[in-house]
Amino acid sequence: MKKELNYKSEIEKEVFAQMAKLVNELVYRRKKLNLTQRELAKKAGITQAQVARLETSYSVPSLETIMKVALALELRIGFDESSREQNVTLE
Questions:
Q1: Which of 22, 26, 65, 74 is the least buried, fewest Cβ under 10 Å from its Cβ?
Q2: In this protein, which residues make up the domain named HTH cro/C1-type (predicted)?
Q3: What domains sit in the chain, N to C, each tagged with a CATH number?
């Protein structure tokens, strides 16, 4: 059962929506590369539990964790100021 979130503002709601899109892209990329959570964790220098928490959105990951995972997956994360939409692009 998913917990209903109460957002403090529309900006906060948008940030969480963008985070969800980013997490979905990270999971997609890991699976596309045929990596297990354990293998990704080793490449990223974090624990398998951290990867699992990131992928299940059990907790809000730190920017450092997101960066480590993105780098391990050879992803570049960027934000498009003009459209205010987050873009995740492959290198």
A1: 74
A2: 26-84
A3: 10-90 (1.10.260.40)
pTM for the complete prediction? 0.75
pLDDT digits (tens, 9 = 90+) for 12-53: 888 888 888 889 999 999 999 999 999 999 999 999 999 999
DSSP 58: S
- Cα–Cα distance measured from residue 91 to residue 29, given in angstroms and rounded to the nearest whole number: 12
Distance CA 49, CA 65 (A): 12
The helix (run of H) or strand (run of E) holding residue 41 is helix 37-44
